[in-house]
Amino acid sequence: MNLKGLKVSGSLAVDTNAVIAYFSGNSLVCGLVENADTLFLPAVVLGELTYGALNSAQPQKNKQTVYKFLAQTLLIPVDESIAVRYAKTRLALKKKGCPIPENDLWIAASCLEFDVLLLSADAHFKKIDGLKVINWLKK
Predict the structure, then answer these.
(1) Is the Cβ–Cβ distance between 110 and 125 less than 8 Å?
(2) In angstroms, rounded to a whole number, what is the distance separating the alpha carbons of residues 19 and 14?
(3) Side by side, which strands form the sheet with 38-42?
(4) Reduced to 3 states, what is the DSSP secondary structure of residue 92?
(5) Does residue 38 contact residue 117 with C-beta atoms inside 8 Å?
(6) Residue 18 and residue 94: Cα distance in Å, rounded?
(7) 15, 21 in Cβ contact below 8 A?
(8) CB count, 10 Å around CB of 10?
(9) What is the DSSP string of 12-58?
(10) Using CA atoms, how far apart are residues 10 and 111, in angstroms rounded to an integer?
(11) Residue ranges in the chain whose pLDDT is less than 70
């Protein structure tokens, strides 16, 4: 899939690696994020980003960067419907013999529950039935 010139119409959720690519100035990721009508940030991604900021050489500066980004998004909190979606998704992957990292299961459940496209460089999201993903690294 050639993503050059791709524009997202509608909603887009971002994975942690997409936000990091955005912070790094990746032009393709920046274009996708900036052109989304609505930008969603799963709470798990906020946790991963905040951890990374606090664990960095410049925790205050990086935490401010994370929270400035958060202010431009709609945060998806984990609620009962996402918890149920997580359980069903995890079970489906277990039956297929295709486990993925725990945090990514929560991110996927958030996107599935809101029927929103996910921007991520992680190939394992393709294992999840019904999840729509843009992987900017995939050619």
Answers:
(1) no
(2) 6
(3) 74-76, 38-42, 11-14, 117-119, 133-134
(4) helix
(5) no
(6) 26
(7) no
(8) 10
(9) EEE-HHHHHHHHTT-HHHHHHHHH-SEEEEEHHHHHHHHHHHHTSSS
(10) 13
(11) 1-9, 139
Position of tokens 């032009």?
Answer: 27
Return the structure tokens found at 17.
Answer: 């690696």
Model confidence pLDDT, tens digit, residues 127-139: 999 999 999 997 5
pLDDT score, position 10: 78
* SS3 of the chain: helix, strand, coil, percent, to 5: 55, 10, 35
Question: In the chain, what are the domain boundaries?
Answer: 11-134
Q: What is the Cα–Cα distance from 102 to 111, expressed in whole angstroms?
A: 15
CATH architecture of 11-134: 3-Layer(aba) Sandwich (3.40)
- Residue 45: closest CA among 114, 94, 118: 118
